[in-house]
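Bug #77: duplicate submission created two jobs. Keeping one. Sequence:
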Amino acid sequence: MTLEFFTSFLAWCTLVNLVFLLIWFFFLTAGGGWVRRMHGKWFSLTDEVFAATHYRMIAYFKLLWVFFNLTPYLVLRLFV
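Kept job's structure:
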């Protein structure tokens, strides 16, 4: 595996994960009631617990995205 291939791979991973994060956020903000009703059928969650859980998971996903996708990609692009 060459360094150029790994840089390209990280670029695509960064882009795909960013799109996933934006879609997740869009579904919660634009269709929050629909998503709550759908999850309410599966789990017994109050609205406060539902919102706190999803926004906490978005924060964890964003943190992992920055550490494992964005930072290595930027390091390879800037310093190699």
